[in-house]
Amino acid sequence: MNVNSKVAIIGSKTQLGKSLIKILKQNKFKNVQLFNSDNNKILPFLKKNSPQYVFLNEGISGGITFNQKYPVELMMSNLNTALEILPYAYKFKVKKLIYFSSSCIYPKNNTGFSNPSEIMNDALEPTNMHYAIAKIAGMTLCDAYNKQFKTNFITAIPANYFGPGDDFNNSSHVIPNLISKMHKAKLYNKKNVIIWGSGKPIRDFIYVDDLASASLFVMRKYNSKKPINISYGQSYSIREIAYMIKKIVGFNGKLIFNKNKPDGMPIKVLDNTIIKNLGWKYNIDIKKSLNKTYNWYKALNSK
After folding, report:
1. Do β-strands 205-207 and 254-258 pair in parallel, antiparallel, or remain unpaired?
2. How far apart are CA 69 and CA 74, in angstroms?
């Protein structure tokens, strides 16, 4: 892979897709092709462009609320992504493809750093089971193509990512949801913010630009067919993250954790040994990345 290679981002309008565009531009790639599924068909795109390298990040996602409310849409969107695109990637002889899965595919009761060898070893977290099964299916289809047709389809499993371009509504993931809630509470002088769950679950977070740079690193350096985690390898409780955001936002009220709402997986932290040993390092720590995310959110909402 070099700067003249034909590189396609499938899911170019997603948060990660936009960061991948930026990272590829910074690395001087000259032939980057963009695709999103809005009123577009993958067959004519691949037929016309014949990309050599593909980042596949289509399919919708959301937080616990969204997962509980729209399990059909989540499952269908992510199943269709794999079923529609992987066969054509094989047909048009893509040299290497990265399929982005999710840390939700790990068993609910993992107590340590999750490793790909543990996938499907135990029951999934019920609140995101449908989304996780669709992502497992996509990963397994990549494996099937690799075994039957000797393709080079790699599954990347990112930690919970966040940053500019995120969805900040009430169905979003935890960090953008907390930023939005606390910003609005500060704006309207509210005395407290209610947060779903106990605050005890442990999570692993990564800034979206670091995920994009790691993804390019994996495309260049990683050639095993085994799934690879992309993670800082650091863990924080939801409570810790909430209080970090409270300080950054400058919200002076009280945080109330509603224990009657679901927590999701108790622990979701990824083993990053493989990518770390390959030489990848992150660029921005959690506090700086939370600051950058909040500054982006404020600028967006001041327009």
Report:
1. unpaired
2. 10
Taking only the tens place, the pLDDT of each residue in 249-297 is 999 999 999 998 877 778 889 999 999 999 999 888 889 999 999 999 9
> Residue 38 above 80 pLDDT?
no
Residue written as token pair 């609140």: 127
Judged against a pLDDT cut of 80, whether residue 303 lies above it is answered with no
The answer to whether residue 12 scores a pLDDT higher than 60 is yes
Annotation marks residue 161 as catalytic: no
* Length reported for the chain: 303
One DSSP character per residue, 199-236 reads S--EE-EEEHHHHHHHHHHHHHH---SS-EEE-----E
CATH superfamily of domain region 6-162+206-233+269-284: NAD(P)-binding Rossmann-like Domain (3.40.50.720)
Catalytic residue among 53, 99, 106, 131: 131
> Which pLDDT value is given to residue 167?
79
Alpha carbons 292 and 163: distance in angstroms, whole number: 7
* Domain boundary assignment for the chain: 6-162+206-233+269-284, 174-200+236-268+292-301
Prediction pTM value: 0.91
Pairing of strands 267-270, 202-203: parallel
Note the CATH number of domain 174-200+236-268+292-301. Answer: 3.90.25.10
Q: Do the strands 202-203 and 236-237 form a parallel or antiparallel pair, or are they unpaired?
A: antiparallel
The per-residue pLDDT of the chain, averaged, comes to 91
Asked if residues 248 and 290 have their Cβ atoms less than 8 Å apart, the reply is: yes
> Closest Cα partner for 256 from 196, 201, 216?
196
- Burial of 79-92, coded b for 16+ CB within 10 Å and e otherwise, reads bebbeebbebbbeb
